[in-house]
Design goal:
This protein is α+β, with helices and mostly antiparallel strands. The chain contains four helices and nine strands; from the N terminus they run ααβββββββααββ.
Length: 194
């Protein structure tokens, strides 16, 4: 029983390690979204999720409403923003309350993003045209090399799979061989008795 229990516990340990690593990489790649969302979700409405729109990248924080102000922390600084009385800037998404903040203007963005400015249609169209008309950087030799690498990878995986299957067959044959020899005992083959 100890052997089977030990195997089950070892398998559970492996699954736990994979789960912890998955959560770690989610936290790193989502730039703090996972931890903040979990804390806001478990606060049962006391906290709100703050999405700060900055010029370089968007980031997430958890905030709360205090006396008509939205309060959140960023880099150990407590930031207080006045909540506009004419429009409700809060909205629900992923079962929590959200609010968007414009980092350049240091103001709460309305849900229709009327306070967020800086969109230039001509510049965006020019960038889009440049992206579509860019020269083809990848040459034919590089494509062929990439194709060969993929083919070699597929062949290597097929080889590993066939080696595993042949190993499993040999192991099964080794396990069955004593029984087969016992069944053949006393059989006459080619004039000789085994």
């Amino acid at each position: 029983m100890t052997g089977a229990f030990g195997l089950v516990m070892l398998q559970a340990l492996y699954y736990g390690i994979v789960g912890v690593l998955t959560l770690f990489f989610c936290g790193v790649f989502l730039r703090g979204f996972f931890v903040n969302y979990f804390k806001v979700r478990t606060s049962f409405g006391k906290l709100v999720m703050v999405k700060v729109r900055s010029p370089l990248r968007d980031y997430f924080a958890r905030g709360w409403v205090e006396e008509g102000f939205l309060v959140y922390k960023h880099n150990k600084d407590v930031i207080r923003l006045n909540i506009p009385q004419d429009v409700n800037p809060f909205y629900k998404c992923i079962a929590v309350t959200w609010v968007d903040v414009d980092d350049e203007k240091h103001a709460i963005a309305k849900t229709n993003y009327s306070t967020v400015t800086g969109y230039d249609a001509v510049k965006n169209n020019n960038l889009h045209t440049r992206a579509l008309m860019r020269p083809n950087i990848v040459s034919g030799k590089e494509k062929l090399l990439l194709f060969l690498v993929v083919i070699v990878g597929v062949i290597a995986l097929a080889g590993v799979y066939m080696a595993y299957n042949s190993y499993a067959g040999v192991t099964q044959l080794q396990a069955d061989l004593p029984g087969l020899l016992k069944n053949l005992a006393g059989t006459v083959t080619g004039g000789r008795t085994i």
